Amino acid sequence: MQATAEIAAEFVKLCQQGEFDAAGERFWSDDIVSVEPMEGEMAVLHGRAAVKAKGEWWYANHTIHATEAHGPYVNGDQFAVRFLMDLTAKASGQRMQVEEIGLYTVRDGKIVEERFLFHMG
Amino acid sequence: MQATAEIAAEFVKLCQQGEFDAAGERFWSDDIVSVEPMEGEMAVLHGRAAVKAKGEWWYANHTIHATEAHGPYVNGDQFAVRFLMDLTAKASGQRMQVEEIGLYTVRDGKIVEERFLFHMG
To answer: Which stretches make up the SnoaL-like domain (chains A, B) (predicted)?
Structure first.
């Protein structure tokens, strides 16, 4: 079983290569809980299938021009990654630069929770 | 009672002005828990007095050349701040640039937990 710092380093490396799906496939627990900073039915998702479906919806509805992943930042069984995304929402055509922090909790070598904090500064 | 996003914005503003003590005085709960990413007796501290004493120890043992605070990043009752610090440890004379994320949990308008994640990237 890998230590949190090792998992964090591998996870960030995959994200830096744009391999977000591979990062999830490799490290999500079957029971992963995903918490987004919004109200509504997508705010909390339970399980790999639901989280994967969210990702597919997201990619289908946005054009990604560029991404950056910085980190990891580590404390105990948690690590954080800072994401910068340059994207266009297909529905509105609006291009935006988004910054967020992904906060990940690890148990038994897998990510059991991901939580996204959106930049408001 | 202030919403998390408002507290987060005020907290970051004070930190950007270098007013870290004032930020703590204003927003720490009496029961605050502080979690640092290290082993040892300072790793988890309970209560305002203990957290304040840690801060005093820290300032007494480091010379701060510059600090930056970026954010906040917000999700529900939690917010994060990214800190950059240029400092010299007085004991060793070693100057270093440190990056960390402070993750704060708010309850009843006060910060009940602070947790620091150190940059390892």
So the answer is: 3-118
Question: In sequence order, which residues have a C-beta less than 8 Å from that of residue B31 and are 6 or more positions away?
Answer: B46, B47, B112
Candidates A71, A117, A121; nearest CB to B121? A71
Instruction: Considering only the beta carbons, identify the residue of B76, B82, B100 that sits closest to A37.
Output: B76
Which range has the worst mean pLDDT, A41-45, B11-15, B18-22, B90-94? A41-45
Q: Which pTM value belongs to this model?
A: 0.87
Chain A residues with beta carbon closer than 8 angstroms to that of B100: 73
Residue B93 has φ and ψ, to the nearest 5°, of 75, 5
- Cβ atoms of residues B103 and A103 within 8 Å: yes
Preceding amide of B72 cis, omega within 30: yes
| Rounded (10°) CA dihedral A47, A35, A87, B101 | -120
Domain annotation for chain B: domains and CATH numbers: 4-120 (3.10.450.50)
- Tens digit of pLDDT for each residue in A77-115? 999 999 999 999 999 999 999 999 999 999 999 999 999
- Chain B residues in contact with A75 by the CB 8 A cut-off are 35-37, 115-118
